[in-house]
Structure formats: C-alpha cells, structure tokens
Write a structure and sequence with these properties.
The complex is a heterodimer. Helix content of chain A is 33%, strand content 12%. Chain A is built from nine helices and seven strands, in the order ββαβββββαααααααα. Chain A is elongated, with a radius of gyration of 21 Å. By secondary structure, chain B is mostly helical. Chain B has a single domain, classed as Fumarate reductase/succinate dehydrogenase, transmembrane subunit (3 helical TM bundles of succinate and fumarate reductases, Up-down Bundle). The two termini of chain B are 35 Å apart. Classes of the chains: A alpha+beta, B mainly alpha.
Chain lengths: 248, 188
C-alpha cells in the first residue's frame, strides 16, 4: 500500500506572520499528476490560503518556478510519481525576496532586464522582402534561436550563487536575452546594451558555476551567453586600449 | 591554485638558475625526493582534473563562426576608467589555456624526475628555456591569483586591497622575481 505523499511547504503572509514557516500537507494516496496539480488539490481541499503563480501548466509561461528539495524546478514539469519517498520540501525561488508563500518579488529581475535593452534595433537600409519583412537565412536564425527560448521563469537566478553574493548582478536570463539580440543579424543595438553588460555587476560577476544552464527548462544555455559576452568585452577593451574603440 | 603552484616552481627554478649551477641541480634533486614526487604527481592530477573544466567550457566560449567578424568590428564601447576586469579575465584565460596545453609536460615531470638526472636543466638554462619560463610562469601565477581573488568574494571575505594584495599582489611579486632571476645570469 502506497504511503501518503507529504509536502512541506513554506508559508508567509505579511499581515499574519513575522517570518516564513513551514506547513505540512498530506496528499491522498491516489493523487497523481504534477507538483502543480498537488498544489491545486491543497488549495481546493486542504488550505485555500495557499498562494503561488501558475498559468499554462505545460512548461511555456515560466510562472510556476519554485524550489523542490533545494532545486529550482517548474512545478508543472515535476511529477509526483517521480518524487523520492518521504516528505518533499517546497519553497519559493531562492535568492529572491518573498512576497507571499511561494510568490517571489521579480522587480529586481525586471530592472535588470530593462537595463540591457532587450529589443531589436534594426539597421537602416536592411534587406527586406516584398511585404517589408526582414530577411534572415536559417543559419542566421539558428545563431540566436536557442537564446530566444527563455520564458523568464527565473530558475537560473535561484540556481546562481552570484545572484545571492553580488547585489545588483544582472543574472543569467538578462544576459542571455541581451546576447540574443547582439547575435541577431538584423540588430545593430549592441552598443546600447554593452554598458549594462560590461559593468562590474554585469557579466564580470559571473564565476562560471554553470548551474544556470543546468536548471534551465528550455535549454537556453545562459552560461555560454555570458562567456561569449566576456570575450566581447575583452576584444572591446583591447581595441579601446589600442585607441580605436567606438563611440562611448 | 595548483596551476599557480607550477608557476611558483618555475620561479624557484629561475632563482636557482640565478644563484648558480649547483643550486639548479639542487632544485631538480628536490623534485626527485619522495615529497617532491608526491607534490608533482598531485599537481599533475589536480591540474588534469581541472583541465576538464576548460575542455567543457571552450566550445560555449566561442560564438558562431559567422559572427567572428562582429568581434573585430570597431568596438561598441570605450573602456571605462579603472575598468580592467576584462584584462584580468583575459590573462586568467590565457593562463588556463597555457596550463592545459602544458598538461602533458606537467604529467611528465614526475616521470622525468625518476628517469633522467639532469637533462631538463640544460633546457632551462638555454635562451629558449628562459623565454618560455618568462612567458609561462606569470600566466600560470595569474590564473591562480584571479581564481582565488574571486573565490575570496565567494567566501564573503571581500574584494578590498587585502584580497588584491594576497592574490594579484603575490602573483606580480613572484613574476618580477622570476623575470629578474632569468635576466640576472644572461645580462653580464
């Protein structure tokens, strides 16, 4: 006979609690599905005050990021049948401020994202098709396609120790999306992104732990993006030293 | 850190060279003692394991070939005053790459110490040998220093002048000692 699955979930409600605390929930033996389904069950039948973010329930929207036994996961992509026996700990994403229960404050990330100007700056006189669409070969698309898959789930921020150690660090996802535009053949906006990327709290705070790429559910590989931006920073620096750097 | 240790070893070799031929023989004899051999083997093994990091990172470091021209395009930013992290990182990468390329040699040192009594010394005394050490040793020292510097920040021990001195400072001092020693016996 299967034992009942137990989830130990971090709770925090500012109006009621002085600090976060853990609450234990025992699930029915026959409850199957994802961790997200388990949270739905708890809210419907055990405790309606439990709060978390979710939307698509299929690994596309990036809303349901949380920590499961210390590892950042998307709740919709973890299945109860795959969990080890014994209680499982569910907590909000690490390294980010907690608003309530499993909901984190993303304001820091959104500021980092805005600072790298993640939009297309098109060169004048680019080659266009009959309807004015930009032209790109399949290999030009392949250069940045992987980086464009980011769903802003912030699992990489929870995984990166430098996010915790270095206040103001841009973080993996922000660098990855900036690099996505730098690599886009239609884009000439790398000069606008460089100041944020090349700051001390930009790519240079990364110490190549690599956990960001390990936990990314969309295989974006932000670690590679960061290292390539470091190479870019080095070549720009050397060019500047030799006297033919571009506009500041 | 083991890579930096190799750099230090090369510095000692240079100093021994400067002192005289007997000192250089003495330096090599130390490598043939049990302690010297153990350290050499440990260094080779640790460096070898660490080299796997380089091998796994290298492919991701290189952007698509089509974009290499973008790296050579006139720069997008002028370096900010006092912003030399790219240089420190670049030397760190160079030191790491040199360490990986020299890995076969590092692995061979313990074997050499057991087999040949004095052949490597002639190589060190030559112009080519001195030039090689003059280039390789500082890069190896810098690699260790840069990593330890950032490691101190990770251990929340700070990034202030003390951290600078304990890492880059020692690397620079040992480098200067090495260069001085290498030139000492060449310039009459």
């Amino acid at each position: 006979m299967r034992s009942r699955r137990v989830l130990v979930i971090q709770r925090y409600l500012a109006e009621r609690d002085t600090s976060p605390h853990l609450q234990t929930f025992a699930l029915p033996e026959d409850l199957d599905g994802s961790l997200l389904d388990a949270l739905q069950y708890i809210k419907d039948h055990l405790d309606p005050t439990l709060a978390w973010r979710w939307s698509c329930r299929m690994g596309m929207c990036g809303s349901c990021g949380m920590m499961l036994d210390g590892e950042p996961v998307l709740a919709c992509e973890v299945f109860l049948r795959d969990l080890p026996t014994g209680p499982s700990r569910v907590e909000p994403l690490a390294h980010l401020p907690v608003e309530r229960d499993l909901i984190v404050d993303q304001a820091g990330f959104l500021e980092a994202l805005a600072s790298v100007r993640p939009w297309l700056v098109e060169k004048a006189g680019r080659e266009t098709g009959p309807a004015g669409e930009g032209r790109q070969s399949p290999s030009e698309v392949a250069d940045f396609l992987g980086l464009s898959q980011c769903i802003n789930c912030l699992l990489c921020y929870a995984a990166c120790p430098q996010v915790a150690l270095t206040p103001g660090f841009l973080g993996p996802a922000a660098v990855a999306v900036a690099h996505r535009y730098d690599l886009d053949s239609r884009d000439v906006g790398d000069g606008g992104r460089a100041p944020a990327l090349q700051a001390d709290v930009g790519v240079w705070s990364c110490t190549v732990v690599g956990e960001c790429s390990t936990v990314c559910p969309k295989s974006v590989d932000p670690a590679a993006a960061i290292q390539q931006q470091k190479v870019r920073g080095l070549t720009d620096w050397m060019r500047g030293l030799l006297g033919f750097g571009g506009p500041a | 850190m083991f890579i930096a240790l190799i750099g230090v070893d090369l510095c000692v070799a240079s100093l021994s060279l400067a002192v005289g031929p007997e000192a250089l023989e003495g330096w090599w004899l130390v490598h043939q003692t049990p302690v010297g051999l153990s350290v050499a083997v440990l260094t080779a093994v640790m460096t070898g394991i660490h080299a796997l990091t380089w091998l796994s990172i290298l492919p991701s470091l290189v952007p698509p070939r089509r974009l290499w021209g973008a790296l050579l395009r006139p720069g997008s930013t002028r370096p900010r005053p006092g912003h030399h992290e790219p240089l420190r990182w670049g030397l760190f990468g160079a030191g790491g790459s040199v360490a990986v390329l020299l890995l076969p040699l590092a692995l061979a040192v313990p074997l050499l110490a057991l087999v040949t009594p004095s052949n490597p010394l002639a190589a060190i005394e030559s112009r080519a040998g001195r030039l090689s050490i003059a280039i390789v040793a500082p890069l190896l020292l810098w690699h260790g220093a840069h990593r330890v510097f950032h490691g101190l920040h990770d251990l929340q021990l700070g990034r202030g002048p003390l951290a600078w001195g304990a890492t880059y400072g020692i690397a620079i001092v040992v480098t200067l000692m090495t260069w001085f020693a290498l030139v000492w016996t060449v310039v009459p």
